[in-house]
Amino acid sequence: MRAEGLRERGKARKREAIVSAAHELFAERGYDAATITDISEKAGVSRRTVTLYFPTKLSIALAHLDAVERRIFSAVREREPGWSVIDALEHWLNEERSHQDELDALTDRMLTLNPQLQAPHQARVAEIVENGARHLAEEMGVPPDARDARLAAAAAAALVSSLGPAPGREDIAAAMTFLRAGISAVSGPDNGAVRADS
User: How far is CA 147 from the centre of its chain?
Assistant: First the structure.
């Protein structure tokens, strides 16, 4: 079991090194100019290792969103008994605010300097919103494509984005109060699973 844990940590470190190296190169040289070979050399791994972890250069550029999605939905799945999806999101935001690191700033710079990444970035965000809508729909007791769940997920994504890096607890609390009120306003009396009183 211990050996397996060490292997997983080793893999995670390699992934982080690859993503960090790539984002730095994309910010310095531009996404189109930086090659997989450049990334492997900067990360200190073989070219084959890079392609084993990430099949395309674009998948490396969007890796930060994949990581965010994993952390958000892990927080939702493992939330405390009695917590709503929004409660779990608020808790996650408060935890994340203390873990902002250099990669977050580097990712923002990479996106700013490489406008060709904006469209795939937004498409990936849309996929995350769709997944969020499924979680909210389940809690609200409505179909996954229901308007209320989709509106709630889109509003949550917009609010999280608007908070910016390392928001204060008061800002997070205000955003979640706003979100709960909005969900309460669009949810019918039979959909009361998403609480507005937390």
Answer: 22
123 contact partners, CB below 8 Å, separation of at least 6: none
Q: What span, in angstroms and rounded, lies between the C-alpha atoms of 184 and 152?
A: 10
State the Cα–Cα distance between residues 34 and 72, nearest whole angstrom. 30
> Between helices 63-77 and 118-140, what is the axis angle to 10°?
10
Compute the residue count for the chain. 198
Q: Any residues with CB less than 8 A from the CB of 51 and at least 6 apart, and which?
A: 36
**pLDDT over threshold 90, residue 20:** yes
Cα gap 149→136, rounded to integer Å: 6
For residues 123, 127, 129, 133, the Cα torsion angle rounded to the nearest 10 degrees is: 150
Q: If DSSP states are collapsed to H, E and C, what string results for 135-169?
A: HHHHHHCCCCCCHHHHHHHHHHHHHHHHHCCCCCH
Average pLDDT score over the chain: 84
Position with higher pLDDT, 137 vs 194: 137
Contact 154, 162 (CB under 8 A): no
pLDDT of amino acid 192: 41
